[in-house]
Task: inverse folding
């Protein structure tokens, strides 16, 4: 955890205990520090699991093994290492992950493929096997901890711990969600050095859980960007213990499936926004809404072109309603757009319509909007019904300060 | 022109006069300043012209009209306005361009399509027609000026004037090149708010000049990036007066065509490097060379993913040999790559080979290399013969300072 807290930070919420989920944290000393940096979560037998992973082709062994293991649909244990991403470390890195999996599986008496491992931190240094072995051994026999401690233990450059809760009614049974996430830089569509874990006591078939998680990720985690960089380790896992005792959800025909899907989507959206709010150097939270595109996918690509534009992000940092830079970003997105049908607004006020500055444009209310912590950029392409919202933060001196002096 | 000069600035070179090319500059007062901001270049009858333009779909009227006029292959006049890009200004912006074209064409007694106009500066403010009319009238009757004055007059946020020269022998006749360029931010493949003008006294068919300019641009202007943003106004024009008297070049079969092509490529490369060296906030010039890719195009896309990565650019700013971030950028490029065959180096020294840090990696010489003004990043994918070099600069506090407070 970093010292200077993001001005967009929100207090850690009260998260419910989830029956069948037991978190632990210990200090494995992956770096020279005294903080907890190894998180272990024990999951009740029969817990369903689903996951989404980075599309970075230079992914870590953790991601490779996790992606392969998701198919069998069940999980008993989760280990998260902070301070070392173990990415790009060849066979030595892979051996460290296999060692952790074997150690936890032996303790739980489960197949290795039911143990999931994530690591986050510097790339290129093999995870030290001795520290991992001692840390896991300590974690397996430690006292359980609360969600905030776990959220802190999975963090690296984060400036505040991040959690989200939700609940849903399934056929008269209340199911609960508790979720934690870490992530601050190297955030782009396809996620980031973003590690997110969602726990619920709902009963649900793994395949349906995967379907819902993938859909929710697409509209949340894959719609945020801090710096357009995609990490080698991004992972979001959802675990459902079934302890709530509802009739298991098998598909959208199951009663309560819509409520569960809505709650899962809500948790994912909360988590995604928290990551943006801790974007490296962020001073403002920016929502970019693109309407009138030829399709939703086209709207999202245009939204991401705007959200990834350094010139747009620095303009917002400077509280400058520079809609010309938004025009530029729309034009470079490689998607259908017609300059003479394009409208640009901020905070609900149009600055330009149909390809021209508004004659009676009053910049005062826009300037007031831009002084706030939450900024809305609206684009109407005037071509069709496609629509999407993406979220990002501004680009400030803080980003440079953090990233020009991170590893040294 | 900005006050603080880039530490990568180079002195303006001695450029030859080009027979048939007469530059002029005047102050049209497009902004409240006393500097020259309107450049007019008169070209001898029969001058061949070729051009490449931004692919930003929200382009300016200048670009639209220029692109359409290139096809007829001849040019008599060029007008460049600095301080106002006239982009996204609807019919009023277009009328201003048409007025300039008509005024120059009437003076020269040539068709309007032989007059080319560029504008650079803030987007969204129509070019004031009265200032343009008075400025052009003054320019048409003004004394000719030198190349450095013209290079200064086309500048906006540039911190130094930029020019390049070359020559070639065509069948015993020496032909000369003089070229100027402006550009500093909003620089990405597909060029930038980059306006470049190349003048030669060679005789060459317009179609062949276009073929050579497009090829040279692809390997130079389209291989540089400052901030991944693509301007609405990018333009590079090449003018060939034919005054040198060589046998006109019609294709690669013409004697001397290879020498001419090499000289043109050299001029384009010089100009492209100058723009990167004036990248907003640039402290270091970075060459990214990618080899072992499945194709040259794939190598270029991977090179651009590295060169556009804020995390790589801030690492170089911090003089940090953070090859892990280079791995990340390779992986996110969406191109074929195999983590376990990947090698990364700096300044000719490998830091990682075949997917792992080198056991005997000595960081001292790499650290020394990174302290210099010119940094080389080398990537070997180990897959094929594809190869490309792209150029960029580091990402510093200077970029934020310039762009968070540009328009206000």
Result:
């Amino acid at each position: 955890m970093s010292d200077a807290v993001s001005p967009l930070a929100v207090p850690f919420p009260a998260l419910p205990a989830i029956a069948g989920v037991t978190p632990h944290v210990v200090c494995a000393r992956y770096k020279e520090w005294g903080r907890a940096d190894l998180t272990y979560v024990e999951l009740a037998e029969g817990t369903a699991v689903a996951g989404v992973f980075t599309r970075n082709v230079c992914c870590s062994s953790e991601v490779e093994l996790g992606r392969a293991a998701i198919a069998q649909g069940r999980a008993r244990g989760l280990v998260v290492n902070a301070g070392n991403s173990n990415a790009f470390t060849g066979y030595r890195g892979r051996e460290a992950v296999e060692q952790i999996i074997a150690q936890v599986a032996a303790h739980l008496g489960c197949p290795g493929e039911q143990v999931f491992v994530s690591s986050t931190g510097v790339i290129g240094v093999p995870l030290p096997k001795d520290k991992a072995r001692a840390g896991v051994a300590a974690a397996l026999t430690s006292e359980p901890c609360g969600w905030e401690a776990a959220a802190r233990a999975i963090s690296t450059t984060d400036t505040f711990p991040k959690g989200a809760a939700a609940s849903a009614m399934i056929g008269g049974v209340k199911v609960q969600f508790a979720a934690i996430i870490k992530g601050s830089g190297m955030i782009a569509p396809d996620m980031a050095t973003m590690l997110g874990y969602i726990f619920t006591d709902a009963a649900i078939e793994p395949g349906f859980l995967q379907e819902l998680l993938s859909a929710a990720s697409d509209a949340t985690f894959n719609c945020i960007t801090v710096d357009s960089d995609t990490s080698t380790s991004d992972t979001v896992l959802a675990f459902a213990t079934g302890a709530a005792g509802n009739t298991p959800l098998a598909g959208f025909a199951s009663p309560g499936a819509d409520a569960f899907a809505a709650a899962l989507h809500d948790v994912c959206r909360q988590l995604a926004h928290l990551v943006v709010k801790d974007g490296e150097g962020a001073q403002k939270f920016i929502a970019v809404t693109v309407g009138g595109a030829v399709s939703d996918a086209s709207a999202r690509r245009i939204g991401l072109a705007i959200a990834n534009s350094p010139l747009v992000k620095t303009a917002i940092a400077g509280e400058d309603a520079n809609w010309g830079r938004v025009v530029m970003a729309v034009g470079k997105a490689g998607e259908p757009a017609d300059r003479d049908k394009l409208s640009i607004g901020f905070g609900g006020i149009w600055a330009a319509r149909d390809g021209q500055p508004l004659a009676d444009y009053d910049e005062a209310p826009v300037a007031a909007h831009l002084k706030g912590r939450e900024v809305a950029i609206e684009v109407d392409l005037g071509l069709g019904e496609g629509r999407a919202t993406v979220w990002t933060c501004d680009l400030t001196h803080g980003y440079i300060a953090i990233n020009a002096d991170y590893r040294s």
Notes: Confidence is low (pLDDT under 50) at residues 188-192 of chain A. Chain A touches chain B through 67 residues (CB under 8 Å).
